Amino acid sequence: MAAKSPIASIPGARKAAMPRAVEPMKAVLVDQPFDREGWIFEDKYDGIRAVSYIRGGKLEILSRNQKPMTMRYPELTDLPKWVAAKEAILDGEIIVLNKKGIASFQDLQARFGVTNKSAIERLVKSQKIVYFVFDLIYVDGYDLMPARLLDRKAALTKIVRQQEVFQVAPHIVRKGTKLFRAAERQHLEGIMAKNGESRYEQRRSSEWLKIKTTMRQEAVIIGYTKPQGSREYFGALELGLYDNKRIVSVGKVGTGFDRALLKELYEKMQPLKVASPPLDSPSPSRGSREVQWLKPKLVCEVKFTERTSEGSFRHPAFVGLRYDKKPTECTFEQPRKTKHTVAAAEKRGSKLR
After folding, report:
1. How many Å is the maximal CA-CA distance in the chain?
2. What's the whole-model pTM score?
3. Which of 15, 47, 125, 171 is within CB 3.0–4.6 Å of 42 for a Cys-Cys bond?
4. Residues ≥6 apart with Cβ < 8 Å to 270
């Protein structure tokens, strides 16, 4: 009699065909770090979400909005050899480490949209990437989405052979405040908090939480102003967020660019020029004649100190373009109260179980 698969013995694991695509589980933003039995805490990596599919020894990497990324990361070509499974779906994040060994989203941007093989080879020589995997969604005939997170993570560590460029994301249990303070000292983006009992849901769920050390937000680039003084190409980017189907102005960002980035952004914006603003009306703080308006196609990330009473970003700085997010995903993201969100997540989770 054949031995039972160890995966089959995981509570909740169910026999199923491998899905062609999975929508990544997303987290809810909360306002404070916390300590809690039953929860685990990880670094929030400043990179790009990457879901890997292994089929018959071949690898496919998709972004969170299902865009193919495999060819941009040849360092991961041998990933199927590092996973002890014929079929698997792994969830994680790809980062680029700068010279100080810290994740740099701006350096990672050089990979976005690149299709030229020689350009990719140059990036491989000049950059150090790491793919941190933090979840196992499917393996060898078994769907693990109904299984609890701690069991999925235990299975993940058993099948992955770690490499310099391919690692299982470490986590700590219960002590989220300690990890958050360490993230602050290291100037990291923040931390993730995950209910150890949580199932994998293909949506945004309050059983996964994100706590940021600085305020950050994705926004749609809806225009740009003329350059002033010695600056070339443009002065500042006009930003907007979606409120249902309409775009609301949230001000502009004029810092965080070097000359090369100014030129790159300017060139990307030229095919998107339109005569009128993609808003109900231009912001009263500026005249529409000052702005070259754009079709709402490009998404960027900005960091800022706080939001004004009108909803604009105070002291914003440009972080980078986000090719992995749709413009319509850029909505107002206000942090929820941690205590209430955690309690509600645990109550909801206990009902599902």
Report:
1. 80
2. 0.89
3. 171
4. none
Phi, psi values for residue 199, rounded to 5°: -85, 160
Bridge partners (DSSP) of residue 243 are 246
Instruction: Give domain 46-168's CATH number out of 3.40.50.150, 3.20.20.370, 3.30.470.20, 3.30.470.30.
Output: 3.30.470.30
φ/ψ of 231, rounded to 5, equals -70, 145
How many CB atoms lie under 10 A from the CB of residue 67?
Answer: 12
Q: How far apart are CA 97 and CA 81, in angstroms?
A: 24
- Give the model's pLDDT for residue 312: 87
Sign of the CA dihedral with 104 first, then 110, 115, and 121 last: negative
- Topology, domain 29-43+171-213: Dna Ligase; domain 1 (3.30.1490)
From its phi and psi, is residue 205 left (phi > 0), alpha (psi between -120 and 50) or beta? beta
Average pLDDT of the segment spanning 13-41: 97
Provide the H-helix boundaries in the chain: 105-108, 117-126, 149-159, 176-185, 259-269, 338-352
For 71-125, the pLDDT digits (tens) are: 999 999 999 999 999 999 999 999 999 888 889 998 998 898 888 999 999 999 9
Superfamily for domain range 216-329: Nucleic acid-binding proteins (2.40.50.140)
Q: Of 95, 175, 185, which Cα lies nearest the Cα of 134?
A: 95
pLDDT at 272 over 80: yes
Provide the residue count of the chain: 353
H or E segment at 117?
A: helix 117-126
d(CA 101, CA 344): 37
User: Is 83 in a helix, a strand, or coil?
Assistant: strand
CA distance linking residue 38 with residue 256, whole number of Å: 40
Catalytic residues: 44
Is the model's pLDDT at 178 over the cut of 60?
yes
- Residue ranges per structural domain of the chain: 29-43+171-213, 46-168, 216-329
